[in-house]
Amino acid sequence: MNGVIFATGTVSAIDPKTVRARVRLPDHDNLRTWWLDIMQNNTYKNKDYCMPDVGEQVKVLMTPDGVEGVILGAVYSGKDTPVISDPDRRRTDFADGTFAEYDRKNNAMAIGGAIKTLTITTHSDITLQTDTQVTVIAQNSATVKTQKATIDSPETEITGNTTIKKNLLVEGSITGEGGMSISGGSGGAAATITGSLTATDDISAGGTSLKRHEHPKGHNGAPTGPPSS
Q1: Largest CA-CA distance found in the chain, in angstroms, rounded
Q2: How far does Cα 26 stand from its chain's mean position?
Q3: Full-prediction pTM beyond 0.85?
Q4: Is residue 12 domain-shared with residue 69, that is, in the same domain?
Q5: Is 9 left (phi over 0), alpha (psi -120 to 50) or beta?
Q6: What element of type H or E holds 208?
Q7: Which tens digits make up the pLDDT trace of 80-129?
Q8: Is 20 helix (H, G, I), strand (E, B) or coil?
Q9: Do both 31 and 57 map to the same domain?
Q10: CA 107 to chain CA mean position, Å
């Protein structure tokens, strides 16, 4: 047979391995095509892969007998309508509820829905840069695993309790406003200070006041007075 026809039909079967499908054509005596190639954007250096679902409406360019041809792509129908109607937004929705959308008018990118895991793998650097702020919200927990982590910021604020399971080295000064409690681990000293220690008030050791304690070795065994400053 000579010539080609342009037709609308419904996908009746798919072959994900060969990227082909068969199409039922109600307007052409309900003809069922042979396995036709599904048009992709790229197949050489850049490669795209997108398969239609069985039951999806598509446009076909083929020989009249349906043996040779190509599936040009899917088209909406009165039954299957787009989820948006905005020329400034490009969006892909998946059957599980996941979506990816870009709004060029508002410069907004959104990815969401039913995503359970999101994996980004690279063998080089990753840079995330913004002119305003970055917010990370994890309802359960967040973990950063690396050989060395650096926070390069003039100020760092932690609003919750903080646990450090290994050593802490502070090269600057330490200022505490809510008091301090230190206990020695594994029988070691709770604190070891190299250098002088200055306290603006009294110091108590084992219940004994440094400023007000007395020694029972005064005159005739009488207690001495408190230490002089």
Answers
A1: 133
A2: 46
A3: no
A4: yes
A5: beta
A6: strand 208-209
A7: 999 999 999 999 999 999 999 999 999 999 999 989 898 999 999 999 99
A8: strand
A9: yes
A10: 20
